[in-house]
TrEMBL record:
Signal peptide: none annotated. This is Glutamate-1-semialdehyde 2,1-aminomutase. Its cofactor is pyridoxal 5'-phosphate. Keywords: Coiled coil, Pyridoxal phosphate. The keyword DNA repair does not apply. Residues 342-369 form a coiled coil. Belongs to the class-III pyridoxal-phosphate-dependent aminotransferase family.
């Protein structure tokens, strides 16, 4: 079934959100394309939200939505969780400032908690986003190994910078053989250098990945991987175990990008689920409870390449004649380890220690309910994912193991479905994954399944 751009879903969407369109036209006078991040846009225009509370979002027209985007999974406790708000207010009241510009107690307190949850993280550094966390992990891998190429997997996203913005969503006809994918730049303004220095691997095929890694062993500092691609295509256990053993054998560092999976498969993320210890880990999204943060952590010997040294810093104006800034890996940031954000993150963990099981159970209940409704109508569907994050794949394919498999899905029908669900008050960005929060209870699940039943009947 193919649905055109002029499907009923979009027609009713436009009728339902006139103030969003009006505001979007005004926003386009201020920001290119009316938005400050490409990911926030979708055609014909994004909904402009005015308020969020618990599991709900409210737009400029007063429409109410059950929010399953949850800021791409960051809001694992929902909008405005009272304990997180109180923790931030307490930090401000007790410390008297929202930014020290110096080391402070919460950096260590949060760090010890992360070390407890992620045993592979022996030392860590704070960043301001998941993107910055993967960027730092790659720089550390370069510095530690002395090699200047990395390998990533086709379809995996690790941030919007040149080294990794390669073969994230490439046209299949240009992407090369499935077992030997080509490196394809995903943005204007990128130098061809990155297509040569970022090697692309096939996901969930250890034999094919091994052949490429063995051939490029002497060039590669690290392999970076989303253990759950896009947050919803899990690595097969034999694959991720094989990748860990292979990278050890070849003396290539293994970086787990757990920005999406942090707290989503459990408090210990994907590495706890798979019982794998990567060399370096990047965390983000849920770790800050909705505030901007990233964490890069890993083996002590690797992390210590960033040890600050006297007279060996890019900002040191009195450098020694015997050393210079190149003697140390540079990492800095005015807002790294922001006290208000760390207070929010610590309280988020405290709530999750009490409630994470019920969040994952709610996700499983919703997945089963959606699958049952499609099955009753004879429509092939997969609710693919682990823990409290999943995606809806409309396909008859038995298994979805990687980016190529995903291309067989019916995106046109999914897009129409998403717009009609938005019109019924169920929100995620069209074609995007679903995330569940502690604010999503039985009431939200029941309303969501009622909307799905109505929309599936209509389609």
């Amino acid at each position: 079934m193919a649905i055109s751009e002029k499907g009923m879903g979009i027609k009713h969407f436009v009728e339902k959100t006139p103030k969003s369109l009006e505001f979007y036209m005004e926003a386009a006078k201020v920001m290119p394309g009316g938005t400050t991040a490409n990911i926030k846009f979708f055609p014909p225009y994004p909904i402009i939200m005015e308020k969020g509370m618990g599991s709900r979002l409210y737009d400029l027209d007063g429409n109410e939505y059950i929010d399953y985007l949850l800021s791409y999974g960051a809001l694992i406790l929902g909008h405005g969780h009272p304990r997180v708000l109180q923790a931030v207010q307490k930090q401000l009241y007790e410390n008297g400032t929202y930014l020290f510009g110096t080391p402070h107690r919460l950096e260590v307190e949060m760090g010890k908690k992360i070390q407890q949850l992620y045993p592979s993280i022996e030392l860590l550094r704070y960043t301001n986003s998941g993107t910055e966390a993967t960027l730092l992990a790659i720089r550390m891998a370069y510095a530690y190994t002395g090699k200047n190429k990395i390998a990533k997997f086709e379809g995996h996203y690790h941030g919007g910078y040149d080294q990794v913005l390669v073969s994230v969503n490439p046209p299949v006809e240009k992407a090369g053989h499935p077992l030997h994918p080509k490196s394809i730049a995903e943005s204007k303004g990128m130098d061809d250098y990155h297509e040569e220095h970022t090697i692309v691997l096939p996901f969930n095929d250890i034999d094919a990945a091994s052949a490429i890694l063995r051939k490029r062993q002497g060039e590669l500092a690290a392999v970076i991987v989303e253990p759950v691609q896009g947050g919803f295509i899990p690595a097969e256990r034999s694959f991720i175990e094989g990748l860990r053993e292979l990278t050890k054998e070849l003396d290539i560092l293994l970086i787990f990008d757990e920005v999406k999976t942090c707290f989503r498969l459990g408090l210990g993320g994907a590495q706890q689920y798979y019982n794998i210890k990567p060399d370096l880990t990047a965390l983000g999204k849920a770790v800050g409870g909705g505030y901007p943060i990233g964490i890069t952590g890993g083996r002590r010997d690797i992390m210590e390449v960033s040890l600050p040294k006297a007279a060996s810093d890019v900002f040191d104006n009195s450098q020694s004649k015997h050393s210079d800034a190149r003697d140390v890996l540079f990492h800095s940031g005015t807002y790294n380890g922001h006290p208000s954000i760390l207070a929010a993150g610590l309280e988020t963990i405290a709530v999750l220690e009490e409630e994470i099981n019920q969040i994952n159970e709610a996700a499983e209940t919703l997945k089963k309910g959606i699958s049952k409704l499609f099955l009753q109508k004879g429509i092939a569907v997969k609710t693919l994912g682990l823990g409290s994050i999943f995606n809806l794949i409309l396909t008859e394919k038995d298994k979805i193991l990687n980016y190529r498999d995903l291309q067989n899905a019916d995106f046109s029908l999914r897009r129409e479905l998403d717009f009609q669900l938005i019109n019924e008050g169920i929100y995620t960005k069209p074609l995007n994954r679903y995330s569940i929060s502690s604010a999503h209870g039985q009431e939200e699940i029941d309303k969501t399944l009622e909307a799905y039943d109505k929309v599936i009947r209509r389609l």
